[in-house]
Amino acid sequence: MSNLENDPAFVTLEDEPCNGLEILEPRDVPLGGPRAMGVRRTLPQRARSLIGAWCFLDHYGPDPVATTGGMTVPPHPHTGLQTVSWLFAGTIDHRDSVGSHALVRPGELNLMTAGSGIQHSEVSTPGTTVLHGAQLWVALPDEHRHTAPHFEHVVPEAFAFGPATVRVFLGELLGRSSSARTYTALVGAQVDLPAEATVVIPVDPAFEHGVLVDAGSPLVEGHPVADAHLAYLDTGHASITLTAGDAPARVLLIGGEPLDEQIVMWWNFIGRSHDEIVAFRERWQHDVIAGEDPAGPFGHVDGYEGRALPAPEMPNVRLRPRE
After folding, report:
1. How far apart are CA 93 and CA 157, in angstroms?
2. What residues contact residue 218 under an 8 Å CB cut-off, 6+ apart?
3. SS3 of 116, please?
4. What are the pLDDT digits (tens) for 158-178?
5. How far apart are the C-alpha atoms of 286 and 294, rounded to whole Å?
């Protein structure tokens, strides 16, 4: 998914110290006009920029497509990151400039590695009546951020762990691992828990973790976490205890080793400096929007009827680290 804000904030991402557990509140972000769908964004924000290499988290739905119009995101660029598409309901048609054409379905991972540059489109299918899911980004470490772009589709197997049902879509958890390629030590999993049930999930204490609540009102380490909120746990936790309330709970568990790198993110680009972001934007506008070099690093998306998405204007200040 693109960041469709007309005036996207620039964010310099770096690890921030934390003791214990933090609750991060979502920010409502509209993705277009008055009828367009909106998302609830919990990463990045002022209180917390990164969880491991996870740097962006949009949570949306359940939205009736008849009201919102569904998802229609024209071709748009990415650099220096991986996009993680995960659905609970509905279907999205994905096309990208490395020739991939795949459907995003509930319980199936679509992982797109942008690397040196890619563009893609995302459109909900005509048969989709309700759209509900999450879009996450993973920042690529400096040594891999110029890797060749590629796409992977993985269907993780659901398995029982105590009363919970778990799907590991990235990295490793509970002795299960995803076949999807990652470039830093990561975990991403969906955990479903029946009403009134408790599960204690062993985790890597070298990781920091986030628990996004999608359904129910569970306790995370004994703390209530509201719907669409993100609980952050610092490194040093060897387990995470989840307790469902009087309704079933569903959460996304993400985590990873602290990235230990400072990165600059603006619109759909991740780089390391203001000048690099400017260069990405200029190349996109020149090659794709102006049509000067369709064979450039962002390539072309076949099968999408319509124009690519122009980049917003750069802010009138240099992108620089927060104090």
Report:
1. 22
2. 193, 224, 225, 242, 243, 244, 245, 249, 251
3. coil
4. 999 999 999 999 999 999 999
5. 10
- What are the residue boundaries of the structural domains of the chain, listed by start? 25-256
Nearest-5° angle of CA 115, CA 117, CA 123?
105
C-beta separation of 113 from 147 below 8 A: yes
The terminus-to-terminus CA distance of the chain in angstroms comes to 29
Residue 16 labeled ligand binder: no
Interior angle at CA 203, CA 252 and CA 12, nearest 5: 60
CA 169 from chain centre, in angstroms, equals 13
Q: What is the DSSP string of 215-274?
A: ES--EETTEE--TT-EEEE-TT-SEEEEE--SS-EEEEEEEES-----EEEETTEEESSH
Give the CA-trace dihedral at 78, 305, 295, 144, to 10 degrees.
20
pTM over 0.85: yes
Domain 25-256 CATH assignment equals 2.30.30.100: no
Residue with tokens 């990151």, as numbered in its chain:
81
In this predicted model, what pLDDT tens digit does every residue of 194-233 receive, in sequence order?
999 999 999 999 999 999 999 999 999 999 999 999 999 9
Beta strand pairing status for 208-215 and 230-233? antiparallel
Q: Which amino acid is at 278?
A: V
Q: Does 78 belong to an annotated binding site?
A: yes
Rounded CA-CA distance 171/183 in Å is: 10
Burial of 321 (0-12, 13-18, 19+ CB in 10 A): exposed
Does the annotation place 59 within a ligand binding site? no
Angle (nearest 5°) at CA 166 between 56 and 123 = 45
Question: Annotation-wise, does 120 bind a ligand?
Answer: yes
The closest alpha carbon to 112, from 123, 99, 124, belongs to 99
User: What is the torsional sign of CA 191, 237, 81, 7?
Assistant: positive
DSSP string, 173-212: ETTEE--S--SSSEEEEEEEE-TT-EEEEE--TTSEEEEE
